[in-house]
Every structure is written in C-alpha cells, then in structure tokens.
Amino acid sequence: MPLTPLNQHACFGGTVGYYSHPSSTCNCDMRFAVFVPPQAQAGPVPVLFYLSGLTCTEDNFTSKAGAQRYAAEHGLMLVAPDTSPRGEGIPDEADAWDFGTGAGFYVDATVAPWSAHYNMYSYVVSELPELIAAEFAVRRDRMGIFGHSMGGHGALVCGLRNPELFKSISAFAPIAAPSQCPWGQKAFSGYLGADSNSWRAYDASELVKEHAQKNRTILIDQGTADTFLNQNQLLPEVFEAACKEAGQPLILRMQPGYDHSYFFISSFMADHLRHHADVLTKG
Known about the structure:
- This protein is α/β, with parallel strands linked by helices.
- The chain is 34% helix and 24% strand.
- The protein is built from ten helices and nine strands.
- A nine-stranded mixed sheet has the order 1-2-3-5-4-6-7-8-9, sandwiched between helices.
- A hairpin with a 2-residue loop joins strand 1 (4-11) and strand 2.
- Helix 2 runs parallel beside helix 10 (269-280), helix 4 (150-161) runs parallel beside helix 6 and helix 6 runs parallel beside helix 8.
- The longest helix has 16 residues, at 120-135.
- It is globular and about 50 Å long.
C-alpha cells in the first residue's frame, strides 16, 4: 500500500510526520499525522489513535494539543487521521459545517452518495491500524484510542466495539449520546437513514449497555463553560447513567470554567496520556 510522506519535523527527540495514501475503504486519498517517539529507535512501541472533531483535519491535534511532549515521556506513538474523505469527486455539503467534509462522524454510511466514500468507522478500526502496523514500529497488541467532540464520540464507539484492538479509551467533551442531540441526529439520518434502530451501533450510550468493559476504566473530561454542553449537544450525563447501569467503570471529570477549545484539551492532555500509558506500557 503506497504511503506518501508529505513533510516531517523533529519533535521532542522523535518526529512528527504527515502522510497520504490511497484508501480502499474510503475510495480516495486519505491523510494522517504520526508522532514517532524516540523510543521507537530501539524497537516497537504502543500506539495511540486520536480522532478529531467537526471541521478539523489531521493537523489540529498535531499542532495544538501539546501531546508530543507527554507521548515522548511515555514512549507512545500518536496517530491522528483526517476527519472525513476529501478531494475532487467526493460528496460535500457546502452549506453545512457539521455534515459532509470535515464531519465524517466515524460511521460507515449506508445512504448514497455518502456510502461510496464515508466509511470512517472501518477506516479507523481496520485499514488505518493495519497500515500503521505495516509501516511503523508499533506494538499491535498495545493500541489505544481517544478523541475530542465528534472524535470523542468516535473513540468511545470504536473502543467499545473493538476491545480486542483498543485496550484503552478516553475522550475530551465527546458527543456522548448522538441519537439524542441535534448534531448526531443530523449526521445519522444523513449517513445512515431515517431508521433510528441503525443508529444504535454508533451511539456510545447505547453500545455500553451491551459492550461494557468492566475491567477497563474510561476517562472523560468535560468543561463546564463549554457552549455545546449548554446546548445539549454533548450529554455526558446520559453516558454516565448508561455506564452506571451497565457496570462500566467511568471517570467523568467536570472541569470548571473550561470551554470546548484546544486550550481545554491541552490543559488535561498529560492526564490522558498517563491514563493510556498506564494500560499500554505496563507489563
């Protein structure tokens, strides 16, 4: 599978690289960024996948989150894919920032024309991990996943549905009950159709009822000054209640005064990298 390097930067003793490749899952070229920690020079390292939010690319997390310092300390590789297919001939929704390009919602679309390219769930849980394992020095048995907002939703869904692949999960301000909020309802009806029963496979608050991982703790940070929290787009309390019912260990931290931005994310990045390192680098 051809992998095209776009650019590379030295960073905390390792490297940040940007790449593109032809994706058979999304039927277009896809892009991602990788931080390779210095420990990879000595052998394979654990890898942590980060899923970004609405309107983002692979660069938002890579350039704004400040994660590389902590990843270098713990010996974790970081992989940040783009948030949707892009390019000539790829469906877009020019009038909507929360649907179409930059808003793949980490689902496998079943409604045309989106179904031809918008298969971000399969890309994240299958094609991308296989590509990373083939091209970089990683421990295939030590993978974790986290994300922000739409990407927090994606991390919860991908992690809950694939515990054999992703051994650790965390999220910043995730869209935690998408079937019950305007963002999720718009995306799911557009990508998956009007039958809300099909939405359950991509709703963490529904999935945890059947896919609770009772030996693994999920970490979520949520800012109390987050505009989208107050607009009932995120609904962490719904996920919290579902976890309690299912017996899923959850640490939900409501952070006073923090909003939805990368100022918030970077403030608690060290805790999230430690959360994953405690699982992925021990033993």
